[in-house]
Design brief:
The protein has 291 residues and is an all-beta fold. It is built from no helices and 23 strands. Strands 6-7-8-9-23-19-18-13-16 form a nine-stranded antiparallel beta sheet, with no helix packed on it. Strands 11, 12, 17, 20 and 21 form a five-stranded antiparallel beta sheet that branches. β2 (13-18) and β3 form a beta hairpin. It is globular and about 55 Å long.
Length: 291
Amino acid sequence: MANESVKIVSNFLTAEIAPHGAELRSLVDSEGRQLMTDADPAYWTGHAPVLFPIVGRVNNDRYRQDGVEYEIPKHGFARRSHFEIVESHPASVLFRLTDSPATRPHYPFAFALEMRFMLHERTLSMTATVRNTGSVPMLASFGFHPAFAWPLPFGGTKEDHVVRFEHKEPGALKEISRDGLIAAEERATPVVGDTIALKDSLFSRDALVWDTLHSRALRYGVPGQPGLSIAFPDTDRLGLWMKPGARYLCIEPWAGIADPEHYDGEFRAKPGVFEVAPGDERSFRMTVTVG
C-alpha cells in the first residue's frame, strides 16, 4: 500500500500521485482523456519529478558548502525519495520529505519539503513548501518538471500546438552544454512575439531555458481547441523540454538553474540558489487549468 498512487478527484479531473518522489503520474479529464505523458520507455519514463535541492546539474555532480564537498545527482534526490503521506482527502493530498541519514551525505541542511496537490473543478494546484527546520540558514533550489501529452487529446497534430506566454518574451535563451551545464553562449529565442510554434527540432540541442522570464503564466495547446492554462506565480525561470520523437512536452517552472560551465564557487554563490532562514519557509505554486 505504501507505494500505491494516491487518487484525488473533482467534478472534472482525476489525478494520481505516487508517494515515491511525490510524483504526479496521471491527470485525466471526465471523458477519460489522459493529459500527461505516455512515459514511453524508448524516450523517458518520468512523469513529473520534483527537483530539489538543485535544479539541473552541478559541475561534476559536486558542490562545496562551507569548504566541504558534497556529491549530488542531477535535479537532486527528492525525485528518488519516498514521501510520507501527511493528509489525504478526496480532492487533496499532502506529502512530506524530511532530512535523514540518506540525505545528509548529499545535502547538509535540516529541511522539510511538502508537496500539496489539490483539485477544484478544472484546476490542479500544486504547492511546494521548503521549510528550514535547522538552526542555520538553509540554501536550496526548487523546480517543477511535469510532462504533458503532446499532442493533447483534444484534436490537432503535434505541429499544430503552440505555447503562448502571458507577455512578449524577446530575450535570448540559455544554451545547455553537452555536460548539462549552462554554456557561456546564448541561444536565439524561438518566441515570435508571445508565441512558440512547437516542433521536435526545437529540442535537438536539449531544453529551451529562460533564465529571465517576464511571464508567470502560459497557455499550451492548439489555438481554437481546449488546452492547458498554466500559472507559476513564484518562479522566474522556465524550461521546456522533450526528446525528439517523444509524445510529451515538459513545462518546468524553476526557482534555480544548472551550474554555469566551469563553475567552482561555493553553493551559496551558485546562480538560482535561495536562502531560507531558520524556522522560515518558502512556497512555490503551479496551477494547471484544463479547457
